[in-house]
Backbone:
């Protein structure tokens, strides 16, 4: 329970969670700030200029400090001190977003850890992100490109380039946009921005169209990826994407598909469209094997029995509306609806408890 409270506090969620509006926002005239951070390029070479940015979601920001620490990475992945953590810039009464650019880059074989400390309305919170510079010296291992937490306690997602991607910068840019414009755009997942680590795989895989019946080709270093809850192949060719065998696929440009497939791969949710994959999960389901099951579950997620509806002509029922991300794929991000939000919270809480 303690873990769960901590997690909710980290995500900025007030208890009780279910069916409650977030009313606390109106308690004072100045809002507590909500921010998030990103670096660009996401996986820079040793000499690329690197820009570190802190963006505002809402609230009043009074002060921002940026600290950076750079470590050397050995060929076995051991870190050693390169420079102590240093304050590189401070902004008072800033106009958001704020950015700092490291001209000439951080050098090769480095792990860069940056920390934005954001203050406003008596609240201080810290975003800490680590990323490697290119090339990464540890052979056949997933490369940390946006890591925020203990990998045994948070969701880990590895982006695998498809062998059909001919320009690697296309892939790297897609990874950055999947973080900022998918995981940090969807309103619920963004609350858990300190619960998702992102990696790039140094070895390619290859995605197949669902209708061919062929499984995805896994990369040759697959056995090194078992630490990650999600493995996604980003491809260029337009396919019918699917999740199976522990790996899922999406066109590199589809921010909606990556969240839909992450719904399966990371959080264990079923499809909400007719003709999809359906099952009723034991914990926090988003599909139900009967109308009665759906009706009985409705109050647990702040809904009413009248919200239960049949999934097309399939023999499954749901409580989500038709704009839930598990009903959609494609270019655009849609909000997960209440049953899915509860399943996502459950899956992230399980990770925080070390499961
Ligand atoms: Zn849903």
Residues:
């Amino acid at each position: 329970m303690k873990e769960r409270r901590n997690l909710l506090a980290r995500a900025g969620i007030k208890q009780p969670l279910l069916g409650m509006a977030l009313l606390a926002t109106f308690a004072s005239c100045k809002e507590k700030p909500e921010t998030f951070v990103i670096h660009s390029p996401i996986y820079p070479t040793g000499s690329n200029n690197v820009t570190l940015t802190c963006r505002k979601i809402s609230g009043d920001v009074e002060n921002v400090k940026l600290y950076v620490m750079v470590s050397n990475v050995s060929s076995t992945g051991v870190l050693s001190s390169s420079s102590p953590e240093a304050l590189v810039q401070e902004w008072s009464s800033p106009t958001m977003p704020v950015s700092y650019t490291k001209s000439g880059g951080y050098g090769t074989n480095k792990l860069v850890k940056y920390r934005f400390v954001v203050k406003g309305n008596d609240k201080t919170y810290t975003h800490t992100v680590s990323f490697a510079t290119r090339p990464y010296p540890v052979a056949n291992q997933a490369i940390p490109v946006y890591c925020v937490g203990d990998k045994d306690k948070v969701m880990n997602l590895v982006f695998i380039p498809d062998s059909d991607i001919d320009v690697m910068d296309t892939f790297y840019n897609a990874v950055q946009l999947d973080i900022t414009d998918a995981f940090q755009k969807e309103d619920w997942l963004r609350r858990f921005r300190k619960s998702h680590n992102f990696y790039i795989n140094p070895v390619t895989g290859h995605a197949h169209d669902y209708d061919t019946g062929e499984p995805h080709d896994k990369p040759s270093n697959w056995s090194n990826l078992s630490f990650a809850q999600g493995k996604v192949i980003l491809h260029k060719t337009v396919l019918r994407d699917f999740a199976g065998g522990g790996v899922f696929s999406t066109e590199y440009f589809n921010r909606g598909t990556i969240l839909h497939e992450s719904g399966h791969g990371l959080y264990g949710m079923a499809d909400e469209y007719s003709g999809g994959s359906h099952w009723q999960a034991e914990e926090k389901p988003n599909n139900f094997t009967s109308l009665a099951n759906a009706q009985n579950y409705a109050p647990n997620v702040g809904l009413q029995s009248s919200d239960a509806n049949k999934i097309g002509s399939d023999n499954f029922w749901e409580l989500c509306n038709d704009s839930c991300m598990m009903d959609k794929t494609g270019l655009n991000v849609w909000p997960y609806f209440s049953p899915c939000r509860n399943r996502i919270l459950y899956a992230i809480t399980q990770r925080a408890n070390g499961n």
Summary: Residues 115 and 128 are 4 Å apart (CA to CA). The radius of gyration is 21 Å.
